[in-house]
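ligand=magnesium ion
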Amino acid sequence: MKAETARKWIHESARQIEANKEQLTQLDQTLGDGDHGLNMGRGFQAAVEQLDQDTSDVGKVLKGAGTSLLSKIGGASGPLYGTFFMKLGAHLAGEENPDLKQLTEGFRSAVDSMKKRGKAEAGEKTMIDVFEPVTEFLETENVSNLDNLREKAEASLEEVQGFEAKKGRAAYYKEKSVGKQDAGAQSAYYILSSLVTVLKE
Ligand code: ADP
Ligand code: MG
Ligand code: MG
């Protein structure tokens, strides 16, 4: 992945989030406070605006995006997405074209930090339920065809519906959260699907 591809990833994530802002808001209205679409739209807009167009350092691009997501998304998801991109960027610091193996190691470090930050594990109906299985897939499967990765993200998102929420505002709904989609898992899907889109170009 080159720096230009990382910039495209941020652009494509912003585009997908903007296109689905209403849906993210509605999901968060059902199980939360209804600001997830707004939060994510504002955060990714800021991340696009601060992109360094000249650097060839992939880590720098991702770290910059993370810093801006951390300060602009707000809510519970701001620190979590901020941590993800900052850690991924730190892992890829100084790299000009890391391969899939390096990207996978970066994902592992970033997802583990996210889990620590949110004191969350997989199975608690959050964005982690999309990031964790996709990272495991990268670690254990031969991802020759990146469509497999998008399918994994899609299948994981589908599964989240059946979970009971244990973290964030959705946890107040207890068993009533079962059968409903988590807003953060949905936005995590858009971010990962955007990655597949730009890596395939
Ligand atoms: P807030 O709920 O504070 O308004 P957002 O609406 O932006 O923040 O984000 C809510 C999403 O954040 C949830 O849908 C869930 O996926 C995720 N989330 C909330 N708390 C946690 C946590 N402790 N660990 C991991 N993810 C979490
Ligand atoms: Mg919310
Ligand atoms: Mg909120």
